Amino acid sequence: MIKNEIGILFLVVFLSPLSNSLKEKTDFSQKNCISEDFNIFYAQYISDIDIQKEYTIFQLIISTTNKSDKNSKNIKLCNEEDLLFPILKNSYTYTDGTISILNEKYDTKKISIKISRENTKTSATYHFINKNCWNLYMIEYESL
Prior knowledge:
Elements: H1 2-26, H2 38-45, H3 49-54, E1 56-66, E2 72-78, E3 97-102, E4 110-117, E5 122-130, E6 134-143
């Protein structure tokens, strides 16, 4: 009987802080949002590394597709320490490519930014989701 009580006490004392920290990482209602307007949010996101770190969902999904290698696809989940910031830069730094905002069906909860570079035949698509705040949740890299 005492063993069971100690086991329960261990679970309550040691696992409660863990579940609270996980809830904090995914509870967007507590965040002080920059703006519900994606254009305002994006302008600040690309200009401030601290904002990028705060408004990126970790573990970030990163998908890499190589079309020249039979469409081989690699998917990994990254933590903040796995990434090199800034993730996205001001659009003036992309002088060798084009930037497109992809918002099919005018979804107000998901928006994607695609940056294509013709000289390297590569593209990166950054996917944002709005759950009370805009957050980057996935990046897709593609090479031809």
